Amino acid sequence: MTPDERNPLSPERVAAMAADTEMRAAATEFFLRSCEHRYSYNFTWLGRPIIQYPQDVIALQEIVWRTQPDVIVETGVAHGGSTVLFASLLQLLGGNGRVIAVDIDIRAHNRAAIESHPLAGRITLIEGSSVDAAIAERVRAATAGARSVMVVLDSNHTHEHVRAELVLYSPLIRKGGYLVVMDTVVEHMAPDAFPDRPWGRGDNPMTAVREFLALNPRFETDREIDDKLLVSVAPGGYLRCVAD
User: Fold this and answer.
1) In this model, does residue 1 exceed pLDDT 60?
2) Angle CA(138)–CA(74)–CA(150) in degrees, nearest 5?
3) What average pLDDT does range 68-82 have in this prediction?
4) Which domains does the chain carry?
5) How confident is the model at residue 222 (pLDDT cuts 50, 70, 90)?
6) pLDDT tier at 6 (50, 70, 90 boundaries)?
């Protein structure tokens, strides 16, 4: 039996791969070229467009299975693929786990598709800005009594918006839980990569994460996730809570 057969999830192998500079360069080249083709739009989860890279879908699945949250709070709904992903994982875990999904604009056709999905019973949709105090209070009330909460931030990607989300929703997470900030990769992309968006290099989820971590020792970046994915929209954005 080979070492990999005995221990397929080898930290040593992951570390060696991450230290391979040519491998990292190839992964970066793939990511940048794939963005030109809107690669993340190629996939669905149980019938709904998910608009995520498969590597991040796998990472989110691993976190949910390992931490087994009672509630997953997601900001940014779009077509509902990630919302359904989380609902399906909670369904597999059993119990009464639910997803609370917040978006400033849940379009009628997306709402109808999500609310008619077989997993709709595990999903609560809240329309409104995730940084509105009243919306944040609704989310806090909906998570009251939960043993474990996971939060995934994937809405407006400006520094100020994500910074506000981090302040509002990080208190929901207890030791061992995860706060995932999507699209931190914007910081590593070309300055003109998002000409029609208010975010870009220097003003994005990664800059908000850096500020947040500098002020909040309860959280740290899970570097092992970064190292094993290599291709991800959330490098440095998988944050683990290390203290209550």
Assistant:
1) no
2) 90
3) 98
4) 3-241 (3.40.50.150)
5) very high
6) low
Query: How far apart, in whole angstroms, are the C-alpha atoms of residue 211 and residue 209?
Result: 5
Q: What is the mean pLDDT of residues 67-76?
A: 98
- Position of tokens 């070229």? 33
Share of the chain above pLDDT 90, in %: 93
Q: Give me the residue label for tokens 């989310």.
A: 139
Burial pattern 140-166, b for ≥16 Cβ within 10 A else e, equals eebbeebebbbbbbbbbbbbebbbbbb
**What tokens were used for 243?**
């203290």
